[in-house]
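Q: What structure does this chain adopt?
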Amino acid sequence: MIKINDYERVDDIQREGYKLIQNPKAFCFGIDAVLLAHFVSGIKIDSKILDIGTGTGIIPLILYAIHKKGKFVGIDIQEAMVEMASRTMMLNQVSNEIEIKCLDIKNFGQDFKRGSFDIIVSNPPYMKAATGLKNSSATKTIARHEVACDLEDIIKASNFILKERGQLFLIHRANRLVDILNLLRQNKIEPKQLRMIYPKITKPPTMVLIHAVKGGGLDLRIEKPLIVYNEDNTYTQEIYDIYEKKML
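A:
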C-alpha cells in the first residue's frame, strides 16, 4: 500500500492508467511539461534518459507511458519532491524503469560519469533569481526561480553527462532565447530544432522548445509556431491532439 498524505492528491494522467501524486500547496505540473514530453524524440530500447529538475516526476512518467522503452532517472534538489515522486513511481509499478534521486545538478562531476546518458530533458526554473515575485512556498520558488540552479548550470552539466551526439531537450521562456543559444554553443551543444510557443496567434511568444545535440553540426531548423489557445480561449486543435496522443 503506497502512502498518500492528507495534503496530497492523486491525478490520473489518462495514459496506461498511470497516476501522479501531487501536493497542490507545493507545486503541480503545467502544460509546459506536457509540451516538452511531446517534443522529445529519439528514445530507443537501450536509451538512458535524465530529467533535470524532475519535480513530481511527470515528464519521465509521460515519456515512459508513451514509449514503453528506455531507462529514466529524474533528479531534483528538493527531498520532499523526490520522496513524493518516488512514491508515484511505486504506485505505478515503474520504479525499475524510472529512478528518482535527490541530487544537486551543480555537483554533476561527482554524481555522474562523463558521457553516461543519451538524452537529457529539462523544464528548468524560468526566472532569474533577482527578478519577479517570489512565492511564499519555498518549493514553488525553487521550481520557478534560479535560486538552486540556473540555466548555465544545466547546460554545463549536460555537456558533461551527455554522450557524444547525445540530445538535450529544453522548454524555457522565449525572452531567454539569446541566453540559451549562447550557452549551448559555448558548451558545444548545437541547437538543431526550435519551436516558439504562442498563447494566442495575436500574442507574442512566451515559451520556446529547443532540441540540441552535443557535437552536432551547424544547422538549425525553425519549426512552425505552436499556438495554445484560440481567440475564444479554447485549446487549438494541435493542443488537443497533443493531449490525446501523449496523455490519453
